[in-house]
Amino acid sequence: MALSKLDRRTRIKRRIKKKLKTNADMPRLSVFRSNKQISVQIIDDSVGRTLVSASSLNKEIAEKSDINKVQQAELVGKLIAEKAIKENINNVVFDRNGYLYHGRIKSLAEAARKAGLKF
């Protein structure tokens, strides 16, 4: 019997997380994508604490109603990079969280790289 979409993503997510090497110097940049919004967190797995977060629900991004979801993801990527650099976080490990590296996930990652975050 075929897996449901959520079960498949959960298996992929576990497989990806097993390979990620994180520490205090290189926290994890985790992406969550819903049908309408996208959010990102930089997480220190050694402590289990969120260091920085950004979302498409932030005031600066939510006010722009004339943009599509890919452009929204670019703005979130730029915002997370600016916040991370302000907190002296330059290097992260990218966790796509079981989503394909395509579309909104790709535009978010490229915008974060362009804004100065290294992964």
Compact overview of the structure:
The chain is an alpha+beta fold. 40% of the residues lie in helices and 19% in strands. A hairpin with a 4-residue loop joins β1 (28-33) and β2.
Description of the structure:
By secondary structure, the chain is an alpha+beta fold. It has one domain (5-114): Nucleotidyltransferase, domain 5 (2-Layer Sandwich). Helix content is 40%, strand content 19%. The chain contains four helices and four strands. The protein has helices spanning 5-19, 59-62, 69-86, 104-114; strands spanning 28-33, 38-44, 49-55, 93-95. The protein has a four-stranded mixed beta sheet with strand order 3-2-1-4. β2 and β3 form a beta hairpin. α3 (69-86) runs parallel beside α4. The longest helix is centred in the middle third of the chain and has 18 residues, at 69-86. The protein is globular and about 45 Å long. The mean pLDDT is 92.
Output the number of helix runs: 4
The percentage helix is 40-55%
The ordered H/E elements are HEEEHHEH
CATH architect. name = 2-Layer Sandwich
Strand content: 15-25%
Question: CATH class, please?
Answer: Alpha Beta
Number of domains: 1
Largest sheet: 4 strands, mixed
Apparent shape: globular
**Poorly predicted runs:** none
Mean pLDDT, all residues: 92
Cα-atom Rg, whole angstroms?
14 Å
Cα(first) to Cα(last) distance is: 37 Å
Count of β-strands: 4
Strand order of the largest sheet: 3-2-1-4
| Helix/strand structural class | alpha+beta
Q: What is the third-level CATH name, the topology?
A: Nucleotidyltransferase, domain 5
